[in-house]
Amino acid sequence: MRSHVQSNGCFIDPVDRGPRKAGAVLLEAECKGPILAPMSTSPNQFSLLSRRRFLPFFVTQFLGALNDNVFKNAMLIVLAYRGGELFGLHGPILVNLAAGVFILPFAFLSASAGQWADKFDKARLMRLVKLAEIAIMLIGAAGFALGQAGLLFVTLFLMGCHSTIFGPAKYALMPQHLEARELVGGNGLVEMGTFVAILLGTLLGGGLVASRTVGVLPVSLATLAIAAAGYAASRWIPPAPGADPDLPLNPNPLSETWRNLALAARDRTMLLALLANSWFWFYGATFLTQFPSFTRDVLGGDETVATLLLTALSLGVGIGSLLCERLSRRGLNLGLVPFGLAGMTVLAFALASLGDAPVAAGAALTGVADFLSGSGRAVLPVLVGMGVFCGFYIVPLYALIQSRADHRHVSRIIAANNVLNAIAMVLSAGAAIALFSHHASIADVFRACALATAGFLVLLCLAAPEFPRAMAAWVPREGR
Description:
It is built from 17 helices and 3 strands. The protein is mainly alpha-helical. It has a single domain, classed as MFS general substrate transporter like domains (Growth Hormone, Chain: A), CATH 1.20.1250.20.
């Protein structure tokens, strides 16, 4: 392997690294400097979309995220606006219960999902999961057709199980099928695709149930079609044999989760990367959960404006995710992590300041046109920028986890990370509830999250000096 060592750190040429092996990424302990990679002359990340080793996987995961959000958003709208009419139950209670039901499998099933992905062929596991998705959507169709809230909640729970099992296999398959120099670009495409799928799923799910005259039949047809397309795409994913086929399966999720965290804790940088990854979900959950109320009570916008805010944030995440490969010169650059976190902090404060003057109670809600001619000119750039910095932050973290982990444990490390992410989202909800119970405003919640993010940035830089050193070495080069 040819390396380029300069006075400000260790530079690794990704072209000469070859396929990823355990411990392939060098960090400060190994090269006495932050990691940076020079610009490669190889094709960029979009060339992966023409390769069988990536495209079927990308399409499969995209359709899975799309279906999750089509069904979930359609169900939430039906429960919120027609819960009493269809099910005789109080809408807000059902909506909050649904959020908990979807996250629940991540807490108790992630440990087993990580074991299965490390032991068995990941491509085959994905095909089984996608085949099960078709059956799950049939249950959901029955729930909509019969007006049975219980069947809809069963479907939502099973979709949570589907996502829980798919996640570790998804992130562990990438370092098997991609070379080390392709991991940042591949993760950028996956994160971009995921957020586009979330946006499209939200729009499609809401649009399909908007008409009372048509009803919920289009939702059932759409989710079944997407599930079938996802299974078809999964059949083209090349084999990805289990990294540890002799692994004994531990049925106890608590002890297995603890064991997985212990595996990660052997490497301080790995553990910090998992915690940093979970902070992304804490941050994202805090803002996304408040968007409907922020739109209505602070910006004075209607449902179309709330959708526009989600669009702006998702667009930003997609842009930031795709830019990561170029900014890191098609290698792994840890400097993007504190850079992204700093931007997330500044723009969280900016959004909070825009929410300090809420609309008067009872004021008429405005549509997209009026919003764009008024407060939207300040709010939308902030949200797009926030999304861009989120992309800068999360993509290198996933690439670091995939590259740093022992190849026999990648799926279980990802599973442990999923548990931490679920805990982070629950803590986000608890923190917001605690603030609101003390009469905090939405702007106060945003400001508290910004302060907490600034504190996390400081702690991360103190605990892992390789991150700020990598940023210090990278920023001047980008300016030349």
